[in-house]
Amino acid sequence: MGTWIVNGMVVEADNKQVMKHILVDDGKITAITSDDRQSLDTDGHEIIDAAGKLVSSGLIDMHVHLREPGFEYKETIATGTRSAARGGFTTIACMPNTRPILGTPETIQLVLDKAETEGNGVRVLPYGSITVNELGRELTDFIAMKQAGAIGFTDDGVGVQNAQMMKNAMSLAKSLDMPIIAHCEDESLVVGAPVAEGSFATKHGLKGIPNESEAIHVGRDVLLAEATGVHYHVCHVSTEQSVRLIRQGKAVGVHVTGEVCPHHLILSEEDIPEMDANWKMNPPLRSAKDVEAMIQAVEDGTIDIIVTDHAPHSEEEKAKGMQAAPFGIVGLETAFPLMYTKFVATGRWTLAFLLDKMTVKPAEVFGLPWGKLAEGQEADLTIIDLETEKAVQPDEFLSKGRNTPFTGWKLKGWPAMTMVGGKVVWSE
Ligand SMILES: NC(=O)N[C@@H](CC(=O)O)C(=O)O
Ligand SMILES: [Zn+2]
Description:
The protein contains 14 helices and 19 strands. It has 428 residues and is of the alpha/beta class. It has 2 domains: 3-55 and 378-427, Urease, subunit C, domain 1 (Roll), CATH 2.30.40; 59-366, Alpha-Beta Barrel (TIM Barrel). The chain has a 4-stranded mixed sheet with strand order 3-2-1-4, with no helix packed on it. α2 (105-118) links the parallel β7 (89-94) and β8 (123-126). The chain binds N-carbamoyl-L-aspartate and zinc ion. Zinc ion (ZN) binds at residues 156-157, 183, 235-236.
């Protein structure tokens, strides 16, 4: 018995919006048709009425912190995947900065096993660490982790400080046809600052994180990617200078790709209202000029994909204040509504353009078999209500994390149902 998702609105690549009925059978999309609803053979099928809503290929988020193993008080694979499903995400890639760090085949396997049993049907793709315990001293066993199911290597949370270490990692990754995903941060240029250089830091007498601390790694790594031929992917790009370096790399044929988070496209350091650690994340909110550079980089394709960098922390940790609290904000349950409200509802982007950055492109960049709404594809689908306006209410999050700067924001574009491989994994 299959499922008919009827009367939904589908967006085609040219942004044409058409009403379609979608048949899901045995986990796959077997028909997408605009035939008359009455003429459909729905006998013995389940019917999901998507009238007035968008039906999209499931959202894909390539940068998520699930916190398990080790930090289950912040998030677990169970709560993180529930949060993902509520946010419309059908596939998420999780970062290795857990305890222990995901730097061995056993820990990769542990995450995959837990995701299988407790992952609420959401596809979870683990990254392995580049260096042992993300300490930057010794490479992990890439071959064994690849065999165990790691999809790429990253020391996210910290930058790889040593250039030779990064070059060795890239050479090894290249030989295995695996990507290097980099958190770009030169520690000698950061020195304990909680926010970016700028008006907020000055006003509150705080040290500021300079743009170069990110961009210097991007520049170094683009050169190393050129030398090694690896696929080099830059995490959470936030500065004008990084964008310039990625653009130059792409122009000369380096295999470099980049991601940006909603908060770096929407907020600048000038928006931080007070000394509230819900506005503290790494990279930090930068200047308005950087924000505009990020938007343009998405528009001209320099930045390939949008990710959340979902980074849950406990209320106690965030209550320690701007200086002492850990970096990071949650993102899974607000990403699509934020992007839709700020960029599509305002007319700056088409819906097709936004969906491309959150479905097709992430799959393309990482060579994943999902992301497309087409017959024969796995039935990973998200139904989204584009009309109803609702305020962001952290106490409704399915994530354990409540750490968001977007509390109370009135947004449209809320997911209503998420389906993975033909199975409904969340519905409002
Ligand atoms: N982004 C953050 O502010 N924090 C992340 C680490 C990271 O992605 O760099 C975390 O693990 O909390
Ligand atoms: Zn990071």
